[in-house]
Amino acid sequence: MQAFLKDHVTMPAAKKRPTPRSRAKTPPPPSRRSPCPVACALDLFGDRWTLLVIRDLMLGRTRFKDFTASPESIPTNILSDRLGRLMESGIIHQIPAADGTKRLAYTLTEKGTSLKPILKSIRDWGLTWEPGTQVMQANPANH
């Protein structure tokens, strides 16, 4: 494991990642366990539900009711909490709903969209190693 971490720490980046403007101004959030990027990423989306909410956003779901309709049946109190955390961390933001009602919808920010290759890798791993898994389809109403 140490070789894995060492290789990833010293390995030159293939692409230069965008530097958030607030990085130099804002100290790290007090909820971080360590400066380790893996630990910090897990603090943001490493629980049982958060990546599923991000997956649903990538599949075109935008409304609270869309998330509750997913097959994993996320409890509404947990969904509210995860949406709030994702907004606080700059992974999603709220927008007016496309149907013209006063309700709000959610969409991924640039930071959130940058998680797409990670979710694809997790999906591909699951398809390869977990029998009976299948790819979820995008929400046709939003594409």
Can you tell me about this structure?
The protein has about 140 residues and is mainly alpha-helical. A two-stranded antiparallel sheet has the order 1-2. Strand 1 and strand 2 form a beta hairpin. GO terms for molecular function: DNA binding.
Poorly predicted ranges (pLDDT <50, ≥5 residues)? none
Gap from first CA to last CA: 41 Å
Give the helix proportion (percent range). 40-55%
Principal-axis shape: globular
Descriptive tags:
single chain; 143 residues; mainly alpha; Arc Repressor Mutant, subunit A; 7 helices; 7% strand; HTH_HxlR; transcription regulation; DNA-binding; transcription; WH_DNA-bd_sf
Summarize it.
This protein has 7 helices and 2 strands. It is mainly alpha-helical.
Give the SSE layout:
Layout: H1 2-10, H2 37-45, H3 50-58, H4 64-68, H5 76-88, E1 92-96, E2 104-108, H6 110-113, H7 116-129
Antiparallel strand pairs: 1-2
InterPro entries: HTH_HxlR (IPR002577), WH-like_DNA-bd_sf (IPR036388), WH_DNA-bd_sf (IPR036390)
Pfam families: HxlR
Region (Disordered): 1-36
